[in-house]
Amino acid sequence: MDYSQFLFMPQEIGLLLVFLLVFVYDTFMPARMGKHLPMFATIMTALYTVYAFMPCPDSWGMAFGGMFESNPATWVMKNILNVGVLLVMLQSVKWTNDDFVSVRRGEFYELILLTLFGMYLMISARHFLLFVIGLETASLPIAALAAFEKRYYESHEAAAKYIFTAVFSSAIFMLGISLVYGMSGSLYFQDIATQIVGIKSPLLILAVAFVIAGVGYKLSLVPFHQWTADVYQGAPTAVTSYLSVISKGAAAFAFMVILVQVFGSVYAEVWQWMLYAIIILTITIGNLFAMRQRNLKRFLAYSSISQAGYIMLGCDCCQRGGHDLDDLLCVGLHLLQPGRLRCHRRH
């Protein structure tokens, strides 16, 4: 194995270093220093965020046989997630120093960083195996975060509903991937897109429906949204913020990459009508149910459901316009920093 391929993962390696520093601090520092852990984790994340904003075009390219891709689009998305995580950490400093939560404050920051690493893998994955690894790494620790306040019954309920939903949605997603693999003989995004051109079989429609349903659970798209309000209400406020912004943003970007790069060639024949139906239902039901809520967290949940529908409109516009997400972000980066950034694309 050529270990130089890890040079294409500067953001992932930097995040792992932050995780290890927080873990070592939590494990080996004296108990009296524990109250400084939230601020230490926040400062380390802030320094890492500043470092990650420095563009490094030499690290953009394909790695691990094409399974992992680093480019301007993934660089921008990961930096957006970094800023969101930093805001969540700042929000949670006072809460994690609470007497009941302080005994587990280290686990909170470690789980947050671990889920962020999984989202990194989802964003950069160009192979469904790596995508599933990132998806599970990002999903399963959130169940522990949702149950962080163990003294409340709603927190237990939120964790149980989230873990069962995560397992069920992952099973549906992998069933769809298995059908796609049976038709294309590959799990690489580009190879699948090439092999399914011209195929209009009911099996492909079923496979795409399973993939959309599996990721739709993560995004809380209607009709896969029933878990969202209960989980948002039962989880701690910092975790609710993380779920509604960071987790959903990463899932939305990864979902659009899959739909555009993998199934873009069969857009009009296979999944255009699915996307239209989901968008209309998500926006309508999300807004209607949000107006009926009396709990702020449940209101936030249904608001985020509606916003997921608007996010999917961007995927539809991108596909109908014949553009690739990476190309669109690449143009935006050149407009912001002309002459400084180069787009590394595989043709």
Structure description:
- There is one protein chain.
- With about 350 residues, the chain is mainly α.
- The chain has one domain (about 5-335).
- It contains 13 helices and two strands, in the order ααββααααααααααα.
- The protein has helices spanning about 10-30, 35-50, 70-95, 105-125, 130-145, 155-185, 190-195, 200-220, 230-235, 235-260, 265-290, 295-320, 325-335; strands at about 60-65, 70.
- A two-stranded antiparallel ribbon has the order 1-2.
- The longest helix is centred in the middle third of the chain and has 32 residues, at about 155-185.
Topology:
Blueprint: H1 10-28, H2 37-52, E1 61-63, E2 68-70, H3 72-96, H4 105-124, H5 128-146, H6 153-184, H7 189-195, H8 202-219, H9 228-234, H10 237-262, H11 267-290, H12 296-320, H13 325-336
Antiparallel strand pairs: 1-2
Task: For the structure shown, list the relevant keywords.
two-stranded antiparallel ribbon, single chain, globular, mainly alpha, 347 residues, 72% helix, disordered C terminus
Count of distinct structural domains:
1
Q: Ends: how far apart?
A: 25 Å
Number of helices: 13
The neighbouring-strand order within the major sheet is 1-2
Question: Quick check: average pLDDT?
Answer: 83
Strand pairing plus helix content: what structural class? mainly alpha
Give the radius of gyration.
20 Å
| Topology, number of strands | 2
H/E element string? HHEEHHHHHHHHHHH
Which bin fits the share of residues in helices? over 70%
Please give the largest β-sheet. 2 strands, antiparallel
Low-pLDDT windows of residues = 328-347
- Amount of beta strand: under 5%
Based on CA inertia axes, which overall geometry fits? globular
